[in-house]
Amino acid sequence: IRIGDLLATRLAAKTLQSRGFFVATVGSPAVSPRDVGLRMTLTAHHRAADVAFLLRAVADVTDASLRTAAE
Asked: Which pTM does this prediction carry?
């Protein structure tokens, strides 16, 4: 998930990890600095409810992380 800001990406990852999600940051040199973001893997064992829960958490966390990084 592209966030585009390294600090916001790290904040988002840390917050999602504290909520029990296994996510990793992807940054330079693997991707360009403007394309930094989060990496996660879905499997056949995840239910639709799991994915919906993850998407809501990502939306909440990335919005908050981008605001914090901008301050």
From this structure: 0.81
